[in-house]
Design brief:
Structural class: alpha/beta
CATH architecture: Alpha-Beta Barrel
Oligomer: single chain
CATH superfamily: Aldolase class I
Strand content: 5-15%
Strand order of the largest sheet: 5-4-3-2-1-9-8-7-6
Helix content: 40-55%
Number of strands: 9
Order of helices and strands: HEHEHHEHHEHEEHEHEHEH
Shape: globular
CATH topology: TIM Barrel
Number of domains: 1
């Protein structure tokens, strides 16, 4: 079996996107939207709109019936997608169409049960064939991820594990060693959603990850304004925005989403327009 105790970044599409932003002197913007909201075709257009307006890495959420980490805005969106008939195969359709139209890497955020039900190696093979870059697995910890580690080694897909302020030093070490692409740094304890102030714990957590060798640490949960994006990229490699984008798509459609993304992108310090 391939040694999976460390995760070099060579060949990682996501790491390359983050490195390009770092080399340019700006941070990266990672944007989350659920597949199938408000319907499959619109969700594909919305994801392309993210890339066209400043998002560097697209995070596609796979709707799930028990989204324990998601706040009410994202929960409502994913429940609508499920009601509209979302199926796991729709993820691969979306990734294929999005990657045909934009160079931004696409990672899928998914709870682990649907991947197990589909078949771990089959899921990895189908994601790779569709042009996907990897998976974010919020409820899968590295020491219980043997099947995914093996499949991701075989396919070269990125694997993004989470680190939280409550994580032990040993758990942080595991997340750093076994993540490829970046470590998803949870800014605060709790579910996703917009917050007026980001917890200072996020800055401390990124520093702890750096001490353990993290090449790329991106901060998510609670980021919703350009000023918050600016603050996060002072110490992290990227800012992850979800709820604010889902709300923008819900309330303003694809055009309204584009306006919000352009504003958030300005927070990274790069020219807009």
């Amino acid at each position: 079996m391939t040694d999976t105790t460390s995760a070099p970044q060579a060949g990682s599409k996501v790491a390359a996107a983050l490195r390009a932003r770092r080399d340019a002197g700006t941070g990266a913007l990672i944007g989350y939207l659920p597949v199938g909201f408000p319907d499959l075709a619109t969700s594909i257009e919305a994801a392309v709109t993210l890339a066209e307006n400043g998002v560097d890495v697209i995070e596609l959420g796979m709707p799930y019936s028990d989204p324990v980490m998601d706040g009410p805005v994202i929960q409502a969106a994913t429940q609508r997608a499920l009601a509209e008939g979302f199926r796991v195969r729709d993820v691969f359709t979306a990734v294929r169409e999005i990657t045909a139209r934009t160079a931004a890497p696409v990672v899928v955020m998914t709870y682990w049960n649907p991947v197990e039900q589909y078949g771990v190696r089959r899921f990895a093979d189908d994601l790779l064939a569709a042009g996907g870059a990897g998976l974010i697995t919020p409820d899968l910890i590295p020491d219980e991820a043997a099947a995914w580690l093996e499949a991701s080694e075989a396919t070269g897909l990125d694997r993004v594990f989470l680190a939280a302020p409550s994580s032990s030093d040993d758990r942080l070490r595991q997340s750093v060693e076994r993540s490829r692409g970046f470590v998803y740094t949870v800014s605060t304890m709790g579910i996703t959603g917009e917050r007026t102030e980001l917890d200072a714990a996020a800055r401390t957590l990124v520093a702890r990850l750096r001490e353990r060798g993290a090449q790329n640490a991106c901060v998510g949960i609670g980021i919703s304004t350009p000023d918050q994006v600016t603050g996060v990229i002072e110490y992290a490699d990227g800012a992850i925005v979800g709820t604010a984008l889902v709300r923008a798509l819900r309330d303003g459609g694809v055009d309204g989403l584009g306006e919000v993304v352009r504003a958030l992108s300005a927070g990274t310090g790069r020219p807009v327009g």
